[in-house]
């Protein structure tokens, strides 16, 4: 380590610094204005009794305290966890299964992948309203149920047990497309002989899939898992449009509860507190995943 | 490729047919959407439900276009989505390059700060964001629809990951030739990163296209509304117009079908090349 | 759709604080805009709407203002019904909101803080005696007139004339009773066809409760009182139409009422709705639609009315001009225009005939009978959350998953505090 070299390095560093300033400033300015500022503002709001009309008063942590005291909060928290636990594994399993199924032996793979991806890009509101029609009492789902089982169909969107199931199904329909593409990309990148081994039928295929393909695919799997988990904690539009959170509070999730608190009851302070609870939960879960990733994610290099 | 080595117990065509059946079931809601769009209004909830109504009611499409200025809404959606995609690319490329290649004080801290915000649900900042855009005098405008969500960390993160896979040697060669950093970025990095940039543009476009909560809050006139908002307008206080709603939904879905079919070859390759798949 | 991946760390906060400081500075730089001084006043008015045709109609009404007062031009802003109240809430947080806003009588208590009392500001040519008194009363909070109505309506029973004829039933008369209703509903129910379409919308359930018990959901002192035993019993009766009686179908959980859809599809022969949907309903249905007042119960026959109108916001910078504009928007010419085009059953009694001319046969008789015993529906300040809780939890009660008592206790607890 000569001083000469160090000096050169620091000159290079200084030059880099100026370039970085230029490259980063548009992003940093916009980011500060449109992300950090509203974020900080929402912390401030969460410490106030902040009705939309009328006086706002500083209440410290009272919003958080009364949130934890409200039984509804625990119900929506449980609903959200139920949703996450039903949706995330099913999503990963189905999209991974489909990605493997659409193997090189299938003709027109690109077309199949694209069509399975389709519901992910059509407007969610459009998707949800069709599901509403299909699952309405006496609608297509109910009449199919009756003709298959011979019995009377459940009231899919009106029964507390079924409503959440339909919300999960809609979310899966809408959501597996992204992960399908991610897994497809991952599989395509695997060495051909590995795929050959995995797609061959006969004894040991399943074992080979578990012991060879899956570890090689683990970075994709990790990425998809993190993304899917985070988005599932934020689930909003599906229950909001499909069931309006009902029946009762059977499909009320953290974010629909947040929306209701802030924009129906106009309690911005409390809504911001809910928002920060959601944020905290997501941070926690994501941190856990990153801690756990060393155990099972194998990066190639 | 002509030599098939191993005999296959289950012929490929069985698998193909099964997959096709699954796909058709999967796409069934779209079929129902179009079929419903062609039914007379009073037959949509008639029992038992039938796929085709007593007559094909093409007038529903004209009715939907008449009920709302749908073309205008489609244009608003396309325009804001495209502008958003462009802006995100323009802002993210240099920022991602700075994080990927340049060494500067606070680089790591700033990047971690960026990444942290990836987890912020949009709902957390909608209210202050509304007050802010209002303060700027932007409410009910294109810039209000586009700008607030153009500075997310997603694009920066995605491109940074990709840029780091590009061999440094390419840049060093250009730098030795006297090229400046912006020049290197523009003529060396950007051409190589085209697939990743395309993926970012497409995904951003789709995010804007589907966004619901923000337009709901910021748009206050019909001529600035986007498609998802328009769809909401068919249901409400003065009766639900399911016939027109389904026609409008069909019109909103068709452009996406076209886009996806056109891009089908590039979807997976783009993701593979962009590193979005986690490698 | 989603963006993601993460890190999160302790160093974040310092950087974030610096950025925030910077951006606060930026925000402070943007200056306030000032109004124009060119002799004409542009007033922004904000109203819900659900179609381009409605927007056009309101713009026509806006033109009437400029015609009468050339110094005022009107700029119309809109949102769908569901989004309207969200937007109104968020806009109220800022000072540059609209001057004139649409208000529904059921929500007027909720937005009272946002509105100016009209008592002293209205121009002299406005005579409150021209309006239906019950709807005028419904737009009064703490003895202050906060809005002027343009339309109103008692909720009535819609019935399928063809289904009544097919079942060999005589069409209901304005003085029919709840027992007549139940008997008709039974006779009209067979297989997939139901006599009635229920839905847990508190406003649409209320007429039944009022006629059976004489009680509204909100008592005379303005307190929400859902747990009153009579009220509970009335709701249990309503839920039993689905359960023990089986004359109405179970309901789905949706954010938009399915009752009228089921009625129009011919799956249910009767439902409750307001006159504002009547002309649309007749044009959609493939059968003849009739209307009749909600049947009389043990407490007689009272029609609960609600309606919509316009008020002036507290933040409005030119109250005088806004009041003049308001007098035209809710004036006789606008009323005549909206009534004759079938858009609104006018709150001005003199203009109602133009609406009848377009409406289904028998509408005049039914609505006049209903109006003769009208009473304004009372609401609380957070009526939105009462409506929404009632609908969410009511789905379970109607479908028999919970009892009326449990359900009403829950709503009272959630929304009444």
TrEMBL record, chain B:
Classification via PROSITE patterns: ABC_TM1
UniProtKB keywords: Cell membrane, Membrane, Transmembrane, Transmembrane helix, Transport
GO cellular component: plasma membrane
Sequence intervals crossing the membrane: 12-35, 73-97, 109-132, 144-163, 184-206, 242-263
Topological type in the membrane: Multi-pass membrane protein
Pfam families (alphabetical): BPD_transp_1 (PF00528)
UniProt-listed CDD domains: TM_PBP2 (cd06261)
Subcellular location: Cell membrane
ABC transmembrane type-1 domain: residues covered: 74-263
GO biological process: transmembrane transport
Protein family (similarity comment): Belongs to the binding-protein-dependent transport system permease family.
The protein's name in its UniProt record: Carbohydrate ABC transporter permease
Organism: Streptomyces radicis
Lineage: Bacteria, Bacillati, Actinomycetota, Actinomycetes, Kitasatosporales
TrEMBL record, chain C:
Pfam short name (any one): SBP_bac_1
Keywords: Signal, Transport
Keyword Signal: yes
Subcellular location: Cell envelope
CDD domains: PBP2_TMBP_like
One of the record's GO cellular component terms: cell envelope
Signal peptide: 1-27
Keyword Transport carried by entry: yes
InterPro entries tied to this protein: Bact_solute-bd_prot1, SBP
Family: Belongs to the bacterial solute-binding protein 1 family.
Protein name: Sugar ABC transporter substrate-binding protein
Originating species: Streptomyces radicis
